[in-house]
Amino acid sequence: MDKLRSCTRLWVVAFLALGCSGSVRTAAVDRMQHSLSQINFSYARMQKTELSDLMEDLSAIIHERLDCYSQNVMALDRVADCRKKYIRQIVELCRRRIKSAPRLGDAILCLQYCPISQAVCRGDNIDLEDADCTPAESKCIEYCLDLFWRGGTLPKEMMP
Q1: Which domain holds residue 33?
Q2: Rounded CA gap, 101 and 121, in Å?
Q3: What are 7-50's pLDDT values in tens digits?
Q4: Considering its fold, how many domains does the chain have in total?
């Protein structure tokens, strides 16, 4: 089981390095172990985040992203279509429901990696075929919002 989880996390890091080639790819592979520990640390920290009243809306956005991913098999299409729509929907929701000035660029950079928490959750729950990992991705979104939109409402132990 631990070997399977390690393989899943390795796949996530490999997925992040897909666009790289040559020396850039070699450097990415060299940093892979550091990246794995960073992913594990970030995932654990995000899972401590409290869900807010945005949970239902975020779940709908996440399920829409998953449906879009299932219809688009090419990674480029997923990024071009699904990921852009996903980020746009989250930003629109937050503009309607959160009344504070965001650090929008930082928030978007953070939000674009939240689908990875869905993959890590699935790797952690490999025995449960129908495991619902929507809360894990929602917690990642909430973490990004706490950090870059809601004015730094995170406790010190959860700050990066």
Answers
A1: 2-158
A2: 31
A3: 445 444 444 444 444 554 455 455 545 566 677 777 788 888 88
A4: 1
